[in-house]
Structures are given as C-alpha cells and as structure tokens.
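Notes to self after the Tuesday call (sharing in case useful).
The group wants a holo model before anyone commits to mutagenesis around the pocket. I volunteered. Ligand is adenosine-5'-diphosphate. Logging inputs and output together so the record is complete.
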Amino acid sequence: MFLAWNEIKYSKVRYLLIIGVLFLISYLVFFLTGLAYGLAQENRTAIDSWDADGIILPEEANGNFNMSLFSAEELDNIQADEKAILGQTPAVIEKDQEDSGEDRLDVRFLGIDTEQFLTPDVVEGRLVESDGEVVADISLKEENGLNLNDSITLVGGEQAFEIVGFMEDAKLSVAPVLYTTIEAFQEIRFGEPVSDDSELAISAIVVRSETDELDQITIDNDQLELIPIGDFINDLPGYNAQLLTFVFMISFLIVIAAIVIGIFIYVLTMQKVNIFGVMKAQGISSGYISKSVIAQTFLLSLIGVLVGLLATLGTALLLPAAVPFRSNELFLIVVSMLMIGIAILGALFSVRTIVKIDPLKAIS
Amino acid sequence: MKAIEFINVDRAFKDGDKTVKALQPTNFSIDRGQFVAIIGPSGSGKSTFLTIAGGLQAPSHGEVKINGQRFSTESEKKRSKIRLSEIGFILQASNLVPFLTIKQQLQLVDRVDKGKANREEILTLLEQLDIADLQNKYPGEISGGQRQRAAIARALYNDPTIILADEPTASLDTDKAYQVVEILAQETKRKNKATIMVTHDTRLIEYCDQVFEMKDGVLQEVQLTATT
Ligand SMILES: Nc1ncnc2c1ncn2[C@@H]1O[C@H](COP(=O)(O)OP(=O)(O)O)[C@@H](O)[C@H]1O
Ligand SMILES: [Mg+2]
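Result:
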C-alpha cells in the first residue's frame, strides 16, 4: 500500500485518468445491470407476486397463456395444495373523460376468483368486489396519472371499470396489470357475459404446493400440462431474448474491462521495469513489488467502482419513472466485487513481468 | 572476520561460441571500516565484480562470503534477504524511486524489512548528509549531488555491513563528485562500513584506504604513493 498509494499521489493525473476509465466502465455495467434487471422484472413481477409453484395450461397452448382457453370446470380435475383459476388477456384502455386517443394504454387484464390465492396485495384502496371494478398496477398512477375512483373504458368495447385499488409490482410482459373478476374477464374476452357458470372459460390454473415440489400435484386430464413456474416465466414471449441480450452485453463489457485494466497495469508496469529492477537490487522482493501493484489496482478499481456506484444511484434518482431501471443490493454488490476481482485478475498478468525483471539489467 | 570475501571467484560469459572471461579467478577481501576503490577502463570487468559482490549475478566458479557466511551459493530468495539487510547499493544518478520523497525512500526500507531500522534515525541521517531540509522533496526536484547524497542515506539507512557504489559520481561535476566521495569516506569510518566504490575518475581515490585496478578481468592492488 505504501508504494501503491504514494505513487498514485505523485502521478495524480495519470491515475485519475485510469480511475476515470474504471469509473465509466463500472458505471455502464451497473447501469446496464439495473436496466436488465428492471426490464426482466417488468416481464414477470405479476407472476412472482403469486408465489406459485406451477401453472397448468392446455398442452396445445405450448406454454403460452395468450393462446390458451379452457373450461373453469377443469379445476375439479386437479389435486394441489392450493389452486386458483386465472383469465388473462391483453387489452387497450382509455380514461373515460378523454377522447383524444393519446392516453390509450396497453394493459393486461387478469381475471381471478377473489376467494382464491391470486388475490393481489392492495397498497391503496381496496380489493375488487364486483365485476365493474379493477385493482391496477401502481405504475398507472405514477406514470399515467390514473387515480382511485377513476373510470376507464375498454377501447373497442363498451365496458367501463372503476379503479378501486392499486398494487405494487404487477407487470406482465412489460404491461401494467389490472386485476378484475373472472366474470368481467369473460366479458372483456368475448364481448358478452356468460349466462351460466359452467361456460366460464379461463386461461390457466395456477397451483401452489406446500413442499414447493410439483410431484404431489395431479391432473386428471391429459390435455392439460403442468409447467413449473420458472420454466413458464422463461418461456414468456421475448423474456429470454431480452435477458440474454443484456447478459451478453454485460459479460462482454466485463471481459473488456478486464482486458483494458490488464493492459493499463501492464503498460504502467513496463514503464517501471527499471525502478522495480533497482528496488530488487536493493533486496526488495518480487513478492513485495507484486503486492504493491495488486494493491494499487485494488485501490484504483475500488475508487472507480465506488464512484460508478454513486453515479448509478444518483442517476437512478433522476431517471423518469418510465425507464425500467431497478437496482438491487445483491446485484450491486456482486457487480462491484466482480469488477474489482476482474481488475485484479488483469493486474496478475503483470506479476509475471515483475518476477522476471533482472535487477542486473536495471542497474547496468 | 571479513566483511566480504571472494574465494577463487571468476565469471565467464558465452558470446556465441566464444566465452568471454569478464572476471579472472579472484581472491579479495575487505574489513569493516575500509574504503576501497576499484578503477579501470570501461569493459574491464568492474561492474561484473561489483554485481557478483552484491549477489545480483552468480560467479561461474568460486564463492562469495559475507560476514563469514555463505552468500553466493544461497538461493535467490535468501540472497535477496541478505542484500536487503547487509548490502547498500549506490548506483549512478537515477536510482531513487521517482515517486517517493527523500524521506519515503528511507521509509520504504522499513516497510519491507520490518524491525531492523530505527525511524528516528531518518532525520539524524539526513542531517548528517546535509539534506534534512529536502526530506519532503521528490528526486526530480533536487540536484544531482543532493540525489546522490540521498542515495547514500538510503544505502546507509538499513545499517548494512557493506556499501557497494558503482560510479556514484558519474553524473556529477568535479566539485560535487569530491563532496559525495568525501561523505562516503566519512560515513564509512563513522558507521564502520566496508565500502567498495567503482570509479573511472582516478582523482577521487585520495579518499580511499586501498585502490585496486581492474584490467581485462584481472584485479590487482595499486600501491598508493603517499601524496599530500
Ligand atoms: N551479461 C553479459 N553477457 C555477455 N557479456 C557480458 C555481460 N556482462 C558483461 N559482459 C562483458 O564482460 C566484460 C566486463 O564488463 P563490465 O563488468 O560491465 O565492465 P566495466 O563495468 O568495467 O565497464 C565486458 O567485455 C562485457 O562485454
Ligand atoms: Mg560498468
């Protein structure tokens, strides 16, 4: 640390530039990680909030509940610790008073039976009690200015709904979710209410198991298949492609960071071959010099990463709500450690050079 | 007990299919408190001699002992340790660490070799060498003569047995060169060191107790005629 820190103090500009590069790279990595995580969450938070273990769909739907429709009576053919029916449909809504067309919103309606476990945790207002009511994702309030008791209409239909409650983290495939009753779902989906409960159609049956294992769940109909909830999320349209895009961008960025830092430290080491050689001639061991270089890299990357972290958190405060940025302590810590670890890995490359310095050459 | 002792040491280099004998078989020793000069033309083997003495290269044959202990036959790691505690190197002008202040140059030795050095000594030592007011300056901010005095301070700081100086005055003008050698001679006596100085400036040998001449790898003592 003695050599490392004194050298940084002596060559301030040079090391500030290196810290600057480390800062920019880590800022970018933090930011992309936040965006990736935010976008991933917007695909799935509604599903995560169910705390379910599996979902049952008709086999022909191929794991996609946009394409599935079956009778609610199938519920009786399923043995599970907890089970709930679910209707799901995308829709476009607009605020009642306005006809400008600009305030149309893409949403997802989820029809549920409020006696079953899919009932949302309302943070404002109350639960759905009748067919004309919805509980909406809070983003509709924060980003779109909808409020409790506002009335919304379905575009291309006559139904109107009153917002009676808001809930957090209810997004599905990047659209805000509106929870309503299964009967209201029928009306949205088919344009008219069903006359008889036996005609109720649903998109899926969601199941929970107390042991988190799916093998206790049995289905008495081979047209239906049980999909573990994790697999179901991965198969959401676009979800995996988005996630992989980010994962690859971030991994490449981290690899590039390692290479860039490795090159920096290597060039700096090469510039100091003579100084290190003279030190070795005086009996200062390769180990001590190498430790100094590693310590220096650690200091530089620690400062760069911390500044990057602060900048990320600062930027997050300024971002418009519509940007799907979300940070998560675990990710921030993991990315920080990864960046510092990678920097040190890059510096290890120079240790070989240090060990090989011949003090004889340095002094002659 | 001799501070440093060469026992039948020689050094040959392979140059293509010829071998160059940079140092012919040499026996040599000095005691603490002695200031010895080695003079000779360029390429005669002076640096080879000095770097073997400092353990930076191994002799082809023979053995170097320090304080009567094995040295040249020890492992690289052990030699490095012995070098740190028993040998002070003074090289041509630029062997100070450019990014450490004069004081920090000495502190570095403490960092590596914990325990042996005495921190209060820094100021005393710098005062003795008349560079105490430069202690917070970087090598790039002081003159060549001051740098060499700082280098001497650093070599002395860890209280080694032996001081090896390879052309310590090469980059200095005559006045400064005299001053530096005078200081080296003084400190050798005051601190009871064994000092070997390589120089090609024969005027500087008046400060030395013994003078050797290197010629084609052969080391021979020069009889000093008492001049006043
Ligand atoms: N590493 C080496 N490889 C080959 N020859 C060397 C090497 N080091 C020194 N020599 C040769 O040994 C001889 C003595 O060199 P040196 O000790 O540097 O002389 P001086 O210091 O007196 O000028 C020279 O002929 C030089 O070319
Ligand atoms: Mg030489």
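Two things stood out.
The radius of gyration of chain B is 17 Å.
The longest helix of chain B spans residues 174-191.
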